[in-house]
Amino acid sequence: MPTYVCPRPTYRYMVSVVVVGFPMSGKTTLVAEIVGIGVPRVGFQETCSCNYVSIHINGVEWHVWDTPRITSVDDITSGWVGENALEEADAVVVCHDGSRDRCPMSLVRACGVDRSVLALTRGAAGREDLSYAIEYLKVTRMDGTLVPRADGITSLLSAVSCLLPNACTMATG
Ligand SMILES: Nc1nc2c(ncn2[C@@H]2O[C@H](COP(=O)(O)OP(=O)(O)O)[C@@H](O)[C@H]2O)c(=O)[nH]1
Ligand SMILES: [Mg+2]
Questions:
Q1: pLDDT over 90 at 100, yes or no
Q2: N or C: which end of the chain has fewer CB within 10 A?
């Protein structure tokens, strides 16, 4: 009689999340908030390099990458220093600060609809600027659902977790 051998569970020990967005869309501030380090709100410093900060969530190491500005999707393949990190990312957080002339959906498409989450930054959710609504509703994922939107760190981590393949990566608190 054949013996059934239960497959060994596969656990992930590292998750890579890349934060992207147009200039001044709140990427660096968001990364600092995700990993729980403070950022000074006085003075703006342009991010020129691509760096990650580590956090542990439920025993899983997350690398959260801050990236330099993207002014148009063409930047991504034109020497933008975040290209490699983006290519290898498990999830992409696209920052949207509500600016009317900065529809984030082109970035979502370029970064991968099925691995992207929209983060409403700089009070965008409070301003309820939905000038990008039509573009937003045009973009659906493989399962027919819309790209998740998050307006706080807890909802953002939860939305990112849902993109990840294994339950052990879930952020539960
Ligand atoms: N009041 C306020 N200012 C913010 C917030 N997030 C970012 N900023 C400011 O917006 C500017 C750009 O933020 P930053 O995170 O550096 O954007 P990045 O260029 O996309 O990395 C900075 O002057 C920040 O202090 C926010 O939630 N509230
Ligand atoms: Mg920055």
A1: no
A2: N
Q: What is the Cα–Cα distance from 18 to 117, expressed in whole angstroms?
A: 10
Nearest CA to ligand 1 atom 7: 26
Q: What is the pLDDT of residues 21-48, one digit of tens each?
A: 999 999 999 999 999 987 766 677 899 9
Q: Which CATH architecture is the domain 14-167 placed in?
A: 3-Layer(aba) Sandwich (3.40)
Q: Name the residue ranges covered by the structural domains of the chain.
A: 14-167
The DSSP H or E segment spanning 157 is: helix 153-163
Pocket of ligand 1 contains residue 121 by CB under 6 Å? yes
Q: Is any atom of ligand 1 closer than 6 Å to the C-beta of 67?
A: no
* d(C-alpha 155, C-alpha 161), whole Å: 10
The residue whose CA is least distant from atom 23 of ligand 1 is 44
**Residue 164 has what DSSP assignment?**
S
| Dist. CA 16–CA 64, nearest whole Å | 6
As a whole-number percent, the residues of the chain with pLDDT over 90 amount to: 67
Could you tell me which residues come within 8 angstroms of residue 21 by beta carbon, excluding any fewer than 6 positions away?
27, 69, 70, 94, 95, 96, 97, 104, 107, 121
